[in-house]
Amino acid sequence: MKTTTWSRDGVRLAAATAGVGDGPAMVLLHGMGSDHTHVEVLASMFGDRYFTVLPDLRGHGASDQESDRHDIATLADDVAWLCAQLGVHDITLVGHSLGGVVSLAVAAAHPGLVSRLVLLDPGIALSDEMSAGLSDFYAGLDDETYAAVLREYLIPLMFVPSDPPQTVQAVMDCLTAMPLRVFRQLGEGIVAFDSMAAVARVSCPTAVVTPQFMIGDIARVEAAAPGWEFGRVLGTGHYMQMVTPEQTEAMITQFLRTHPLGGGHGEHAS
Fold first, then answer.
1. What is the CA radius of gyration of the chain?
2. Could you tell me the CATH number of the domain that includes residue 185?
3. How many distinct structural domains can be found in the chain?
4. Hey, which residues does 179 pair with through a beta bridge?
5. Which residue in 230, 229, 220 sits closest to 126, CA to CA?
6. In this predicted model, what pLDDT tens digit does every residue of 56-67 receive, in sequence order?
């Protein structure tokens, strides 16, 4: 896997690439407080069929943490910009958690770029009560207790008892290493994003895959997008692509088989 960095308006953006260099493009976006390695195993399962692109979203991994812009629209524009730098189009876009929110925004704002969309437990369709609670949570964080509070609040929310301890540890270590300023801006960006308006603007085939619970109101999404497909994975919490990658890959693959790319679509520009 090769990692490349670019500068967009003075902000460093990084992405790892692998797979079939002249094949159709699949872009996989990680969650909040993660980096591209958290979708790496899943990406490797598509490497014999796709040119895979794994960005580190702004504020994460090898990308810049110095920016003060971490709203969803900016992150979505970053992804579209990276695709232009790589010469990929008609992409299959897969996003987990925050990456799912960003993927939804990309598909809504750049419809010509995305041919198929897969959202893995995205933080969308938040109720007013959930949005208010999250806003209070982000506002109440402070540098002194930040890491401890995140572990106390997020572990019960995102994991189930059967999730491997090493996965829980790896995710939380990555999350708590993020500067509080960036974490808060990202969280506020999720709360402020009008996900249901974006759902209404998406025109490509879309699948939503969740564990047994979803932070947002999935019934609301189902009602608003009757043409979308919905499925659940078993035996995992929020990080399905790390805990049950085979099950997650199988569901994505079946969705893609039922929505094949058209002639010439998704080719990686050489």
1. 17
2. 3.40.50.1820
3. 1
4. none
5. 220
6. 999 999 999 988
Residue with tokens 């109440």: 140
Express each pLDDT in 108-130 by its tens digit: 999 999 999 999 999 899 999 99
What domain range is 217 assigned to? 2-258
Q: What is the pTM of this model?
A: 0.94
Distance from C-alpha of 253 to C-alpha of 250, rounded to nearest angstrom: 5
Q: How far apart are the first and last CA of the chain?
A: 18
Q: Is residue 265 part of a domain?
A: no
Domain assignment present for residue 266? The answer is no
Q: Are 67 and 11 in contact (CB under 8 A)?
A: yes
Measured between alpha carbons, how far is 3 from 212 in angstroms, rounded to an integer? 34
| Residues linked to residue 3 through DSSP beta bridges, in sequence order | 16
CB atoms within 10 A of CB 116: 24
Alpha-carbon torsion, ordered 173, 136, 59, 142, to 10 deg: -60
Instruction: List, in order, residues 6 or more apart from 165 with CB less than 8 Å away.
Output: none
